[in-house]
């Protein structure tokens, strides 16, 4: 009996283990396969370079931060050198330091009260800014020094970029001067800097510095004085020449300074003050924020196919902001590819190693993305007017249609011709570049249609067209005039918006926005819904309709009926209505009309409210 029980227990144990193994096998078999993206599959095959550089995020933010540039520019333009600043810096000590700077510089650095005031002003108000600027200088100054050494330009002129742009390659002045050296468009072109839709080499540290170096050399050959070269860089050589004449032929900056433009009077002192702060920052407790990535830690690679910064960032696992900082001359965050021209991408050295080792895979991924670049239909409908997509579909359909020609006969009009070929008046005008609804007798019109002309009884056609097609002609003409207004009808105010920016975005004016939305001031609240589109233009074209009326008495009765319906009609406001939506229901009626007929002042209407139309 005991043996029998033991046998039962052993058999049960074995059966349980077999079942467990079968379950485990089943689990292994039904375990889902996790799909990975094409990007991940490409990156998984990359040869890794073990060198890794940590990028200081605070330093990377300098790319998009223009606060230092704005502050310094404002200081230089408004600073008063005659105002004494209370800051601890003995005058005798300052004189000694300026004399030491003068001894090792080609600039004529002399003490004067105005220079002391500017230095003290920077020390009092801009210490933190200069700490940040010194971290940026570790990247840019080696570029400047290399370019200046080739042209025998004083290396101290590197400090001029601090004054000009606060070392921000994306800095743009109110006048349009751009980049580290603040070149205007014309000057940039004069010094062969490439400027197009994709590239602006005024923001390229290497090319812009070479151009600045060339300019400095040229101006020194004219004036023979580096302070005057700086003055000419700010105000132009013409203003410096005038100042020399007005001073009686004096050729030193400090002697002609009072005859220069006001901004230039503070420009050279600001440059000298910047030089002083960089030279004696330790003595004043200015501790530079250290930049991790420096220029000598980067390298370039020539690009063989157009690619975006996002693609590069995804492939190389690096922030786009870093690519932007290292490649500021590419305006659209895209490295273009022009046939016969060379374009380079600057990256940290370890990323260059990854790029070069995996070039074929990188270009294959870029090509794959370009071929499969699509936009979801729902997103497309939100980001662009529906009319665009309808127009594209219509163009595709029309391209397959046979082109016919029709010679305009006496008594013809666009409505009659459109009816014959079962096409719209708008299309007829587009195919033949017609600006109005009038068409010359004997002209050959191009028509894209799959059918031959439908010939009707002339009287029957005329009677039908008088009612149906003349209104279509007028609507088509109005659509032509107002086609630029095919923007969203309403807009929700977002953070940072103002009436000016919204008007510019939608191609309208502040006055029209205020009228459409019954605004009494320029202030708008966050989240407020604004009506954007202009009032619908009057649809009826007098000349076209008058001609149609004259041709058939039935049109008179039609117009009288329509007019009598419009006069004195009452409209009851429904939920969701606005003055704009109501005005659209009545051709030729504007928001101002409805407000005037109903003594509405603030534009507020409520459901159930009775409005007079054409009252």
From TrEMBL:
Signal peptide residue numbers: 1-20
CDD domains membership: LysM, MltD-like
Record-linked SUPFAM superfamilies: LysM domain, Lysozyme-like
Keyword annotations of the record: Signal
Coiled-coil region(s): none
Matching InterPro entries: LysM, LysM_dom_sf, Lysozyme-like_dom_sf, Transglyc_AS, Transglycosylase_SLT_dom_1
Domain named LysM: residues: 404-447, 489-532, 569-613
Pfam families recorded: LysM, SLT
Similarity comment: family membership: Belongs to the transglycosylase Slt family.
Protein's name in the database: LysM peptidoglycan-binding domain-containing protein
């Amino acid at each position: 009996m005991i043996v029998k029980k033991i046998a039962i227990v052993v058999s049960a144990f074995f059966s349980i283990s077999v079942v467990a193994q079968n379950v485990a096998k089943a689990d292994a078999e039904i375990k889902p396969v996790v799909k990975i993206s094409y990007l991940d599959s490409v990156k998984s095959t990359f040869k890794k370079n073990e060198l890794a550089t940590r990028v200081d995020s605070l330093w990377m933010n300098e790319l998009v931060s223009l606060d230092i540039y704005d502050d310094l520019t404002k200081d230089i333009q408004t600073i008063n050198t005659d105002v004494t600043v209370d800051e601890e810096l003995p005058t005798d000590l300052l004189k000694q330091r300026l004399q030491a700077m003068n001894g090792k510089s080609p600039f004529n650095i002399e003490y004067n009260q105005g220079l002391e005031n500017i230095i003290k002003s920077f020390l009092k108000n801009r210490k933190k800014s200069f700490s940040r600027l010194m971290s940026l200088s570790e990247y840019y100054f080696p570029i400047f020094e290399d370019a200046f050494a080739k042209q025998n330009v004083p290396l101290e002129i590197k400090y001029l970029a601090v004054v000009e742009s606060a070392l921000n390659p994306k800095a743009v002045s109110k006048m349009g001067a751009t980049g580290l050296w603040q070149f205007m468009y014309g000057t940039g072109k004069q010094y062969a800097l490439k400027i197009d839709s994709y590239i602006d080499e005024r923001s390229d540290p290497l090319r812009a510095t070479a151009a600045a170096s060339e300019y400095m050399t040229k101006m020194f050959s004219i004036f023979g004085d580096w302070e005057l070269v700086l003055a000419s860089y700010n105000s132009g050589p013409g203003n410096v020449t005038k100042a020399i004449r007005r001073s009686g032929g004096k050729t030193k900056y400090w002697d002609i300074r009072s005859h220069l433009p006001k901004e230039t009077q503070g420009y050279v002192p600001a440059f000298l003050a910047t030089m002083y702060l960089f030279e004696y920052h330790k003595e004043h407790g200015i501790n530079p924020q250290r930049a991790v990535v420096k220029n000598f830690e980067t390298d370039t690679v020539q690009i063989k196919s157009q690619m975006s910064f996002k693609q590069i960032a995804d492939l190389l696992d690096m922030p786009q902001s870093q690519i932007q900082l290292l490649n500021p001359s590419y305006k659209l965050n895209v490295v273009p590819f022009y046939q016969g021209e060379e374009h380079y991408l600057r990256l940290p050295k370890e990323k260059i190693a990854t790029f070069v080792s995996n070039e074929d895979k990188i270009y294959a991924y870029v090509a794959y993305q370009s071929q499969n670049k699509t936009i979801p239909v729902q997103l497309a409908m939100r980001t662009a007017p529906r009319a665009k997509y309808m127009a594209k579909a219509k163009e595709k359909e029309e391209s397959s249609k046979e082109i016919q020609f029709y010679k305009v006969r006496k008594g013809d009009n666009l409505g009659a011709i459109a009816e014959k070929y079962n096409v719209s008046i708008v299309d007829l005008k587009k195919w033949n570049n017609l600006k109005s609804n009038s068409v010359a007798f004997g002209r050959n019109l191009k028509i894209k249609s799959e059918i031959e002309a439908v010939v009707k009884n002339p009287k029957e056609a005329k009677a039908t067209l008088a009612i149906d097609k003349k209104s279509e002609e007028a609507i088509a003409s109005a659509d032509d005039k107002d086609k630029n207004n095919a923007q969203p009808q309403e807009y929700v105010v977002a953070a940072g918006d103002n009436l000016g920016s919204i008007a510019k975005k939608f191609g309208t004016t502040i006055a029209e926005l205020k009228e459409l939305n019954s605004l009494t001031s320029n202030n708008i609240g966050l989240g407020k819904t604004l009506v954007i589109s202009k009032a619908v233009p009057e649809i009826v074209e007098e000349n076209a309709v008058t001609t149609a009326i004259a041709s058939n008495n039935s049109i008179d009765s039609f117009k009288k009926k329509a007019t009598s319906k419009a006069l004195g009609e009452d409209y009851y406001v429904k939920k969701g209505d606005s003055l704009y939506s109501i005005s659209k229901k009545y051709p030729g009626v504007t928001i101002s009309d409805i407000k005037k007929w109903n003594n509405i002042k603030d534009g507020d209407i409520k459901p159930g409210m009775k409005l007079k139309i054409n009252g």
